[in-house]
Amino acid sequence: MWPFDAIDWVMLLVPFAYITVLVGSLFVFLGIYRRRKAVKAASLEPWFPPHLQRNVYLSLLHMENPKVPDSILKAALLRRATEDIHRIVQIRNAKQALQVLLQRGSVGDDLWQRFQRAEKEIEEELRDVVTEANAFAPNWGQTIFQSASEMAQNTHIRDRLTEILATAPSEKEWWEKRKATIQSDFMKELDDEKSPRREGHVAKGSDDDAVIVEAGGPADKAGKGKKKKGKH
């Protein structure tokens, strides 16, 4: 009886051992795959350049001697939030176009992974800014990004105005050339309109001269002779 029971147990244990080895191999494979994927994602180029405003704020925050005043720290945090607003706008503008290109196969998965990592980083950055703002003043985290958005808009308007003023001399030079060309074309058209009138005036004078010549010709003299004979 015992040998048969041992054989039955061995027959039952073999499938369980096979399943255990299979599941263990699967977990090992998944672990290696995730590790390689994480290493590959870490080696990808970041979507955004280094966050200079965040680094400046953290450097000021951890200065001990001399200690940085809260007013300067708040200003640095606000500048950090303003840069975050710029990055959020870039993420939103690029997401839809990138999804379309990914569906068409125009871009690879590496670019999409970079974009997804940038989205996660910006989400963590926003939470960190809100936490830091609330540490300075209660409920400031709810309004800091509104103030940062206004600052970003003002910066955009100022940059746009600077670009317009920078192109003003070239625009003025182009307009002066254009105005000179238009004036030259206009004067040429006026000269072309006057030329036919002068030719018509000369032609009319020629016809009058022809009539005068014909009036003093032989036929006219013959007519005058006939009139004299009639008088006699």
From TrEMBL:
KW Transmembrane helix (keyword) present: yes
Region annotated Disordered sits at 186-232
**Membrane-spanning ranges:** 12-33
Acyltransferase as UniProt keyword:
no
Give the record's GO CC terms. Sec62/Sec63 complex
| InterPro entries reported in the protein's UniProt record | Sec66
> Mind listing the UniProt keywords for this protein, alphabetically?
Membrane, Transmembrane, Transmembrane helix
Q: Which GO terms describe its biological process?
A: post-translational protein targeting to membrane, translocation
| Ranges of compositional bias, category Basic and acidic residues | 186-207
Any one Pfam family match given in the protein's UniProt record, by short name: Sec66
Q: Which domain of life is it from?
A: Eukaryota
PANTHER family given for it? TRANSLOCATION PROTEIN SEC66
- Return the protein name: Translocation protein-like protein sec66
